[in-house]
Amino acid sequence: MVSYPPLKSLPAFEAALRLNSFSLAADELNVTPGAVGQQIRKLEEWLGVDLFTRSTRQVYPTADGLAYAARIGPALQQIADASGYLRRRNDTSVHFAMPPSFAAKWFSPRMAKFLIMHPTTALHVGSTEEKPNFEHDGLDIAVRYFNGNDDGLEAVLLYRGQAAVFCAPSYRDQLGLTTPSDLVRATLINDTKHHWWADWLATYAGVTREETQTLKHIDIDQTAMVIEAAIHNQGVVIANPLLAEEDVNEGKLVHLFPEHVLTVPLGYYLVHPKKDELRRQVRLFRDWLLDEASELTQVYSPIGVSRSGR
User: Fold this and answer.
1) Which of 95, 191, 241, 287 could form a disulfide with 226 if both were Cys (CB 3.0 to 4.6 A apart)?
2) Which parts of 204-310 are beta strand (E)?
3) pTM for this one?
């Protein structure tokens, strides 16, 4: 007969060791610090060794504690993964996150199409500029704007990033913007998270990086606000054509010099952890999103040269 240790004690031990604190472990497990201490004491009595050295304000794992954690850690993770998979297998929800600009400018107008096709799916959508935290935030899948390199993620390119120039029609007419070199007379609206003006002007207008720094400019740290500023006649914006699509179609923006588009070393990637097997509902959403994005390489096929960026 297999002799098991007190199984309720194992999560308390793992959390306390990882956090170096009974109190923090208690917060994570939604119990009292005393309950955590009691569970760990039961485990120590069963094993016949001390797993922690206690001090007034902190606990420290002993050599036995560290060795024990190294042996049981992978098993606890396997139990959590297997249990979570079975629990979620028939779950019809999809938890999805993406950059705010991608959400507002591309995904939102298309979201209803998926829900009409799959009315039983509960789609939970969030937005973040940060790297998605799948375990902490309970995400199934995400879109991330980066270079596509992450050993822990399965990454499929939706759209290679590009840098193109846009402004309001009235701003173009007011300044007579007919050639790239005319932009030295314009106010350049700069997305501080995506610095492509110097590359674009050097490539297509013969403006050096030093000269670019002397031009009138407005710096904004939110992509959606950058585009809105251009719509409201504040200047010329350099942006991803994908994000300006709707405003161009509605006549709020014009694409200046469409033959001059830079390909940049970042892109929108559909990502999820390599270790996770996607549930059926998530696979349906993934396949739909990839199908929707398949048009992008045709609509926004870059004509300009590729640049390395900053």
Assistant:
1) 191
2) 217-220, 236-239, 254-256, 262-273
3) 0.67
